[in-house]
Amino acid sequence: GFRNNLVRSEGVVTRQAPDKSGKIDKNTGKPIETVGIGVSSHNTRWFPKPGPDGKITAEQVNNSFVGASNDAAVASARVAAKIGKWNQGTFQLLAEISYQSGTSALETFDSYKRFLSVYKTGDVAKAKEAFKETPAYKHSAESRRKQYFAMIDAGI
Q1: Cα gap 122→55, rounded to integer Å
Q2: pTM of the shown model
Q3: Dihedral angle over CA of 14, 22, 113, 71, nearest 10
Q4: Backbone angles phi, psi at 34, to 5 degrees
Q5: Cross-strand bridge partners of residue 31
Q6: For 29-74, what is each residue's pLDDT tens digit?
Q7: The predicted structure's pLDDT at residue 50
Q8: Mean pLDDT for the stretch of residues 100-116
């Protein structure tokens, strides 16, 4: 379910393109890019080697996606265990956040820490309000926000 949601939300892109968030890489001053299934140039699984036509292969898309989604799943499991919420909704929610914001985001970004502290209490309404302050919410289209809220409902 986790990977299916990512493919549905991200689509498959075979040419590097600026990330929809519009974020700029502070080291290069250039836009952060994504390719494949939303794998960003900040992800350790970013390794496109475009061919002469500027496209990456299906094998490259698959390899980066499998690696990045595995990393996000491991991060999700670690955080779910820490907060004592091990169920499908929590796993998918935390895995998607880890995929979108980075595998350490849940434990390092203040907005995610605040969200998790409310989420683990089981108060759905307050958890959704706290989630609105996270990068995952702020950089998502309305359809994805609804998905996140459905995962919050399922996890709590």
Answers
A1: 45
A2: 0.90
A3: 20
A4: -130, 160
A5: 24
A6: 989 888 999 998 888 898 778 888 889 999 999 999 999 999 999 9
A7: 84
A8: 96
DSSP 5-29: HHHHHH--EEEEEE-TT--B-TTTS
Kindly write down the DSSP assignment for every residue of 89-125, as one continuous string: HHHHHHHHHHHHH-TTHHHH-HHHHHHHHHHTTT-HH
Place of tokens 């496109």: 48
CB distance 93 to 105 below 8 Å: no
> Is residue 36 helix, strand or coil?
strand
Q: How many whole angstroms from its chain centre is CA 120?
A: 20
Q: Is the pLDDT of residue 128 over 90?
A: yes
Q: Which of 43, 33, 37 is nearest to 2 (CA)?
A: 37
45 vs 56, 62, 137, CA distance in Å?
14, 11, 23
**Other residues' Cβ atoms within 10 Å of the Cβ of residue 104:** 12
